[in-house]
Design a protein that fits this description.
10-stranded mixed beta sheet, 32 strands
């Protein structure tokens, strides 16, 4: 497949762009004269009409063609087959064998405990959609960096079929890059620039053969799209995009010249069939360079316990139609997320979400001195009262704690104890009434699993002497003595279960985690191809299935 060619007032250039979804807070626009900025952007445009792009005059066009360069299928979430979601191989390809597996034979992988938790977390978040991956890959195909023949005998992107494991593994790889600091930091930098400045950046990037993703954020939802052209109208510049939620349709982001704001009509469809229009300003529109995805990537979750300085809480809803919202209270302030807004009164705390639907993967980072805090979860669905999610809490000198199940309380005024109660030397996890939670603790070479039934609690203590100490508390309030699990580095990973029997006694079982076959780390190409090539599909090793959400 040849390179795509940009048409820009007689200048040929290359470009690539990607998409997905996310949630950010819209900054309030000040009353300002933007005429000089508008003039600068308009200097790149002509008075020539472009009928295929609707009303307006030509600025730049990649030559992207629907029914050829877009995928024929729409964005979707988690697949029924585990190997079409995020696997151990995905993480190896991103970070290398020794980051996610014990050091040793690279033909096999003994999965590190923290890797096991990350698989559960990211696959839960994938339920909100893989649009970041679809858009990134479609842009690479349009640029000629990748070729359709890598995924089938197809000669165009549009003829690639959805049921293709090699394709799905590529999509989740590019989906995951949005969560990595090398990519996320560039996106964050761009959000400090206004919509008009971003249009200027986009056009100049196209001229210089750069490519981007565009992320839009509105209330507690977000989305990203692939831009392929810019035109000018009387009151706005228009960014024309391929939105993988709507294959085969040309969509438009309008940038208001007078207000320096953006709008995207019919951004998402509600359950009742009506559509939501999105609006925003500086801080809610982002432009992320594709070059930032080149790697190599540092594993953000592979730090040794002693190197963790801040507290992070990540939450991913398993049902994108019924997301879970967070209420975190501390003496320093509070953080609350709702379907419409996010509030944060804790100085130094940050809130980020992934680009895949409402609360796809919410990450709250707390300052080291935040002190004690409590967390509970709410669901906006008052009918089904379900709030299935995966929450992971990482604190300095503590094992990483992951909770999976129906964690949402039925009412914001509920008198139940918080699901998470974090104190200086311990963390308590309590299952809400009539609920069953799966809890895992991971540190170094030790992973411990427990099942908590309504009213039961687990208390994890600070790590001491290379060990994890855990105690259980029954629904009647009676506590067990702490059970200690060794986490000394070694040549194997130990997996343990810790549960209460009907008599209130602690039952512990231990086993070793088996190694599984894997492939060497596969490096992604970033050099455009000059001709059509064929690739032999490589059989991907099966993923490890541990507490993976349904």
């Amino acid at each position: 497949m040849g390179r795509m060619m940009w048409r820009f007032i007689g200048v040929a250039s290359l470009v690539l762009v990607t998409a997905c979804s996310d949630t950010k807070t819209t900054a309030t626009q000040q009353s300002t004269d933007f005429s000089s900025l508008v003039e600068r952007v308009a200097s790149n445009c002509t008075d020539a009409p472009v009928p295929r792009l609707g009303q307006g005059n030509f600025c730049i066009d990649s030559g992207f063609t629907f029914s050829k360069d877009d995928f024929s299928f729409a964005n979707w979430g988690r697949s029924q087959k585990a190997d079409e979601n995020i696997t151990i191989q995905t993480l190896i390809d991103l970070f290398g064998h020794n980051s996610v597996c014990l050091n040793g034979n690279e033909a096999t992988c003994t999965v590190r405990p923290i890797t096991t938790q990350k698989l559960v977390e990211w696959n839960s978040a994938l339920a909100g959609g893989r649009c970041e991956g679809i858009a990134t890959l479609s842009a690479r195909l349009h640029m000629g960096i990748d070729d359709p023949s890598q995924f089938s005998t197809s000669s165009t992107t549009n003829s690639i079929r959805k049921n293709n494991r090699e394709l799905n593994q590529a999509l989740v790889y590019w989906w995951a890059t949005q969560l990595l600091p090398e990519v996320a930091n560039r996106a964050e930098e761009s959000r400090t620039r206004s919509p008009l400045e971003l249009v200027d950046d986009l056009i100049n990037g196209f001229i210089n053969q750069d490519g981007y993703t565009i992320g839009m954020y509105f209330n507690n939802a977000g989305h990203s799209v692939m831009p392929f052209a810019v035109t000018e109208r009387a009151k706005a510049f228009v960014i024309h995009v391929y939105d993988n939620n709507y294959p085969g349709e040309r969509r438009e982001i309008e940038i208001d010249k007078d207000l320096n704001t953006w709008s995207y009509n019919n951004a998402l469809q509600r359950g009742d069939g009506t559509f939501v229009d999105w609006r925003g300003g500086t801080g809610s529109l982002e432009l992320t360079p594709i070059a930032s995805r080149e790697g190599p990537f540092q594993c953000p979750f592979c730090l040794d316990i002693k190197n963790i300085e801040k507290t992070t809480l990540t939450v991913s809803s398993q049902d994108p139609k019924n997301p879970v919202y967070v209420r975190l209270n501390s003496r320093r302030g509070s953080i609350t997320t709702t379907p419409e807004t996010t509030t944060n009164t804790i100085d130094g705390a940050t809130i980020e979400t992934s680009k895949n639907g409402i609360n796809g993967l919410l990450t709250i980072t707390l300052p080291a001195d935040v002190g004690d805090f409590d967390v509970d979860f709410q669901s906006s669905n008052s009918v089904s009262m379900t709030g299935d999610a995966v929450a992971t809490l990482a604190r300095p000198n503590m094992a990483s704690i992951q909770i999976a199940g129906n964690i949402a309380l039925q009412s914001s005024k509920n008198s139940e104890s918080s699901v998470i109660s974090a104190r200086k030397a311990s963390t308590l996890i309590q299952a809400p009434r009539n609920r069953i939670l799966r809890v895992s603790l991971a540190a170094r070479n030790q992973i411990t699993h427990s099942t908590l039934r309504g009213g039961e609690s687990l208390i994890a203590y600070q790590l001491t002497d290379n060990s994890i100490e855990v105690s259980l508390k029954g629904a009647n309030g009676e506590s067990t003595s702490p059970t200690r699990f060794s986490m000394k580095p070694g040549s194997f990973v130990s997996s343990s279960t810790l549960n209460m029997d009907n008599a209130g006694a602690v039952v512990v079982t231990e086993s070793r985690v088996d190694a599984m076959p894997v492939l060497p780390q596969r490096k992604q190409n970033f050099t455009p191809q000059t001709s059509t090539t064929t690739s032999t599909l490589v059989e991907t090793p099966s993923s490890i299935v541990i507490y993976e959400p349904d």
